[in-house]
Amino acid sequence: MELPWAEPYRMKTIEPIRRSTREDRDAWIREARYNLFNLRSERVYVDLLTDSGTGAMSSAQWAEMMLGDESYAGASSYYKLKATIEELLGFEHFLPCHQGRAAENVLFSALIGVGDAGAGKVVPGNSHFDTTKGHIEFRKAHAIDCTIAEAFDTQAEHPFKGNVDLGKLEAVYEAHPREDVPVCILTVTCNSSGGQPVSMENIKDVSSLCRKYGVPLFFDSARFAENAYFIKTREPGYEDKGIREIVREMFSYADGMTMSSKKDGIVNIGGFVAFRDKALWQKASTFNIMFEGFNTYGGMAGRDMGALSVGLKEACELDYLTARVGQVAYLGRLLTGYGIAVQRPYGGHAIFVDAKRLLPAMPREEFIAQTLGVELYKEAGIRGVEIGTLLADRDPETGEERYPALELLRLAIPRRTYTNAHMDYVAAALANVKERAASIKRGYRIVSEAPIMRHFTVELEPAE
Ligand code: F0G
Fold first, then answer.
1. What is 22-51+317-462's CATH topology?
2. pTM for this structure?
3. Is the pLDDT of residue 53 over 90?
4. What are the backbone dihedrals phi and psi of residue 140, each rounded to the nearest 5 degrees, phi first?
5. 263: annotated active-site residue
6. CA gap 279, 65 in Å, rounded
């Protein structure tokens, strides 16, 4: 018989988590104003809020923490990270930042400008992540979503739902003069469309279209290794290639990248921005020094750069990726088995539950996916995150709600942190919510909200 996969590691340290009662959770979530970000983590049993910075480091990474060189300039930990980035990703120039959004800030300051410099400019891409969009809109530019239409139908089977619709992208290039399109951002894997990958073929095509119109192409690379795994397992011609070989090929089509190291760097904090062009690196380094820190540490401690230099390599090991992506699919299969609609095919870092299908009786004005998230927390102390109307924010010009095509509850799985028994627990809890779905007809209304990225701090009250 074919042997099943098992995690290619064992546990040396554990962190206790505790169950709670339904009464406790009802009170705690009310106190948190029905915003899952406001909950204290000890009031959560299985925390699937994010896979960002929540992974478990390896013994080799902890060893690097002890070797960390905290020199202000020229630290050996910086050179370790530099060597890994060159060897693995093929970029000679990089700047360490404290996390992904800081990398975006540095890159966009160099490419778009600061203040209102982005007015009249557009940045096309495949469903930009919210911080990316936030940094674009903060500069008064517009993010244009060119993702393929299949991505917005959760039940459509397509192996690469992160792909760019080349027709949509070319239309953007035709409609705007070159100087109004400072950069194109390709997110691998595409978080907003469900942790869905971009194919090598699409990467190549996007790259040649960008070249044709003279627009630089940068990858938002938070989950680049998971993307490479999907290319290996889903794209003809790549089945016999190694993950590292695929990663090198992916990045060979980019002019640079931003990285949230908290995902496929398997560290708790950190990021970087990397460039092929030395002149652009130099321009960006001024902003890095202003916003982050001197070029050889930026926003990171030496020990964290050391741990990252190891984590990036571990994230590219096939056995690790098989277990990692396999665990996400395991949860996906359980939920599908309970008749719960989730984004298909299963993504790389999370399962995205189609909340509109699960709560069909609810009005969209009362935040369907948020309501599902609150119900799941009350049911079993599980924390997911809304990817729906709250996250979409209001239109910055009209102030109107922007109802997205999908209302999703994301269950993001931290790397190397939970077991499949936790996944069994999560799936059973969501099945219980589904059992009583017909009785969930009303959601929440906003009591207070921030003007940008409101989902982090929004306060809600029951609509009835
Ligand atoms: N790009 C993508 C695709 C992301 O998913 C994230 C963060 C960022 C950029 C920003 O990186 O958090 O290090 O500043 N995503 C987290 C999430 C927050 O939960 O999906 P950051």
1. Aspartate Aminotransferase, domain 1 (3.90.1150)
2. 0.96
3. yes
4. 70, 15
5. yes
6. 32
